[in-house]
Amino acid sequence: MKKVLIIIGAMLLLCGCQSNESITYLDINKASSALDSKYGNMNAMDKSELETIYGLDTSKFIEYQIKSSTSSNGNFYAIIKVDDANKKNAQDQMKNMFSILENQSNLYSPEAVKLLKNRLETSVGNYLIYIVSDNNNAYYDVLKGFIN
């Protein structure tokens, strides 16, 4: 009986160590295209702008798409793939970016500030996802179709 309990315990430990996060894959380019179709008027933010103005160290990202609306509606999304060692740092960088965006938006668009404060932030595996819109969940539902 003792051996059976040890075997069951070992199996539970082994199963518990396998994380869905390690097998998650998100096709960032296809997801970005689908979101662009849904959002409309989305434009990739320039790497130098991300680094100089918003303080993002994009060299720590494995892959990313960060886009904002070309109109003044405040729509924005970011899909960032990072490794475990850089995940917390990338989250902190994005928090700082949103703080800067809120400060900038305070000058011309209280509606954009409201959207920024109500943004969707989540992580799936090693992917960080940020959505700013008037219906974050609808756009996240589009993105979920590209997560395996």
Could you outline the blueprint of secondary structure elements for this entry?
Layout lengths: L1 H16 L10 H12 L2 E3 L2 H6 L10 E7 L6 E6 L2 H23 L3 H8 L2 E5 L2 E6 L3 H9 L4
Antiparallel strand pairs: 1-2, 2-3, 3-5, 4-5
Description:
The protein has a five-stranded antiparallel sheet, sandwiched between helices. By secondary structure, the protein is of the alpha+beta class. It has helices spanning 2-17, 28-39, 47-52, 84-106, 110-117, 136-144; strands at residues 42-44, 63-69, 76-81, 120-124, 127-132. Residues 2-22 have low confidence and may be disordered. A hairpin with a 6-residue loop joins strand 2 and strand 3. It is built from six helices and five strands. It is 50% helix and 18% strand. The chain has one domain (23-144). The protein starts with a helix and ends with a helix.
List low-pLDDT spans: 2-22
Count of separate structural domains: 1
Strand order of the largest sheet: 1-2-3-5-4
Overall geometry: globular
What is the terminal-to-terminal distance? 40 Å
Structural class: alpha+beta
What can be said about the biggest beta sheet? 5 strands, antiparallel
Q: What is the β-strand count?
A: 5
Helix count equals 6
Radius of gyration: 19 Å
Helix percent reads 40-55%
Strand coverage percent: 15-25%
Order of helices and strands: HHEHEEHHEEH
Mean pLDDT: 84
